[in-house]
Amino acid sequence: MTAPYLAHFGLREPPFSKEIPDADLWLPASKQGVVDGLLDALAEHASVVLVGEPGVGKTCVLRALRHRIPAAGFRLTYCHNATLGRRDFYRQLCVALGISAAATAGSLFYAVSRHVEERAEERIHPVFLLDEAHLLHQDTLEHLHILLNYSWDSRALLSLVLVGLPELRDRLALRRNRSLHSRLHHRLEITPLTPDDTAEYLRLRLKRAGCDRETFASDATVLLHEATAGAMRDLDRLAAAALRETARKKRKLVERDVVARVIEADTRERDR
């Protein structure tokens, strides 16, 4: 069933849905720079730590990386469940890699390491993307540097990309994690949208969905930016709610008063 607000604004599809192809993702220059930094790191077969506050676009950056990285020569493996102990973490990696999961922690680690070495023989560089890495168990975090050690630590056969909230950076800086931290040569951060980014994001997402005209008043856009602090996930939610509320009022322009009411309702819901 088509939502009534889509027809009201002449939209083919929900403009702020996360169901958008990687190729159509919009990223501001600052986030494109992060993608470029990731590509540079992987071209060097280096490992990376990438941090950012909730909702600022970390997963969007990873999806853009997936779209842009050369298919020949690299193999990305994405793991998003970081709340596992060491044995189950390696079991998860085995499943993601299509390897038969062994019973013991040592056998699991050997299977993953051997998989990496086999890909090197095929001139393929594996990249393990570990999302929500700030939640990794300490025993897993302490062990990851061993996964990067091949041929007496003389060959870079694997890249790790650890992605998480800023507290990941704080954990890695602890003395007990220095062996891993010293191997993460590229340390990147995703920042929130700027006011101009927010305005461009709203315009381009609406245009992609079929509405190529001014839909959000400038002061409404400013209010959305202030309320979301440049977090794309919050912006998607509030902008969609503002469109629905404006359609109910049979207006064609999302104005500041509507956005203010949407933000107030959202705040009440979160404070329950």
From TrEMBL:
Matching InterPro entries, A to Z? AAA_22, ExeA_AAA_ATPase_DNA-bind, P-loop_NTPase
Q: Which is one GO molecular function term here?
A: ATP hydrolysis activity
ORC1/DEAH AAA+ ATPase domain segment(s): 46-172
Pfam families for the chain: AAA_22
Bilayer-spanning residue ranges = none
> Which PANTHER family does the UniProt entry name for this protein?
GENERAL SECRETION PATHWAY PROTEIN A-RELATED, PHOSPHORIBULOKINASE _ URIDINE KINASE FAMILY
- Name under which the protein is recorded: General secretion pathway protein GspA
Specify the species. Eiseniibacteriota bacterium
